[in-house]
Specification:
mainly alpha, 44% helix
Protein backbone atom coordinates (compact mmCIF):
# COMPACT_ATOMS: atom_id res chain seq x y z
CA UNK A 1 0.00 0.00 0.00
CA UNK A 2 1.25 3.48 -0.81
CA UNK A 3 2.04 5.89 2.00
CA UNK A 4 0.00 9.00 2.69
CA UNK A 5 2.38 11.33 0.84
CA UNK A 6 2.23 9.10 -2.26
CA UNK A 7 -1.56 9.06 -2.10
CA UNK A 8 -1.52 12.87 -1.75
CA UNK A 9 0.60 13.26 -4.89
CA UNK A 10 -1.44 10.72 -6.87
CA UNK A 11 -4.80 12.27 -6.02
CA UNK A 12 -3.49 15.81 -6.53
CA UNK A 13 -2.42 14.94 -10.11
CA UNK A 14 -5.81 13.39 -10.89
CA UNK A 15 -8.14 15.88 -9.16
CA UNK A 16 -6.55 19.28 -9.84
CA UNK A 17 -7.14 19.09 -13.61
CA UNK A 18 -10.82 18.52 -12.74
CA UNK A 19 -10.88 21.73 -10.68
CA UNK A 20 -10.71 20.11 -7.23
CA UNK A 21 -7.92 21.13 -4.90
CA UNK A 22 -6.83 19.87 -1.52
CA UNK A 23 -7.48 22.03 1.51
CA UNK A 24 -4.50 24.31 2.24
CA UNK A 25 -4.31 22.79 5.75
CA UNK A 26 -1.96 19.97 4.74
CA UNK A 27 -2.02 18.37 8.21
CA UNK A 28 -5.81 18.03 7.94
CA UNK A 29 -5.49 16.64 4.42
CA UNK A 30 -2.91 14.05 5.48
CA UNK A 31 -5.11 13.00 8.42
CA UNK A 32 -8.08 12.55 6.06
CA UNK A 33 -5.96 10.60 3.57
CA UNK A 34 -4.78 8.36 6.41
CA UNK A 35 -8.43 7.77 7.31
CA UNK A 36 -9.14 6.88 3.66
CA UNK A 37 -6.33 4.33 3.78
CA UNK A 38 -7.68 2.95 7.06
CA UNK A 39 -11.09 2.53 5.43
CA UNK A 40 -9.44 0.82 2.46
CA UNK A 41 -7.77 -1.66 4.83
CA UNK A 42 -11.00 -2.10 6.78
CA UNK A 43 -13.50 -2.36 3.90
CA UNK A 44 -11.43 -2.88 0.78
CA UNK A 45 -12.33 0.54 -0.63
CA UNK A 46 -11.70 4.17 0.24
CA UNK A 47 -14.97 5.23 1.83
CA UNK A 48 -15.21 8.90 2.72
CA UNK A 49 -13.89 9.30 6.28
CA UNK A 50 -16.67 11.71 7.26
CA UNK A 51 -19.48 9.30 6.44
CA UNK A 52 -20.41 5.99 8.03
CA UNK A 53 -19.57 3.08 5.74
CA UNK A 54 -21.60 -0.12 5.87
CA UNK A 55 -18.87 -2.43 4.62
CA UNK A 56 -20.93 -3.23 1.50
CA UNK A 57 -19.27 -1.57 -1.51
CA UNK A 58 -22.49 -1.50 -3.57
CA UNK A 59 -24.35 0.13 -0.69
CA UNK A 60 -21.52 2.62 -0.14
CA UNK A 61 -20.79 3.52 -3.77
CA UNK A 62 -22.07 7.07 -3.20
CA UNK A 63 -19.48 7.64 -0.45
CA UNK A 64 -16.41 6.28 -2.26
CA UNK A 65 -13.90 9.10 -2.30
CA UNK A 66 -14.38 11.34 -4.12
CA UNK A 67 -17.98 10.90 -3.02
CA UNK A 68 -21.06 11.82 -5.03
CA UNK A 69 -21.63 14.78 -2.69
CA UNK A 70 -18.28 16.45 -3.35
CA UNK A 71 -19.23 18.43 -6.46
CA UNK A 72 -22.46 19.94 -5.11
CA UNK A 73 -20.86 20.66 -1.72
CA UNK A 74 -17.81 22.34 -3.26
CA UNK A 75 -20.08 24.37 -5.53
CA UNK A 76 -22.45 25.44 -2.74
CA UNK A 77 -20.14 25.69 0.28
CA UNK A 78 -16.63 25.97 -1.20
CA UNK A 79 -15.55 22.60 0.20
CA UNK A 80 -16.76 19.05 0.52
CA UNK A 81 -18.24 17.95 3.85
CA UNK A 82 -14.94 16.76 5.34
CA UNK A 83 -13.04 19.72 3.81
CA UNK A 84 -10.60 17.49 1.95
CA UNK A 85 -11.42 19.18 -1.35
CA UNK A 86 -12.00 22.90 -1.81
CA UNK A 87 -12.76 25.18 -4.72
Amino acid sequence: MMNVEQLYEQLKKVQEPKGYFFNTDKALVLDLLQALQTNKERYGYMACPCRLASGDRDNDKDILCPCDYRAPDVEEFGSCYCSLYVS
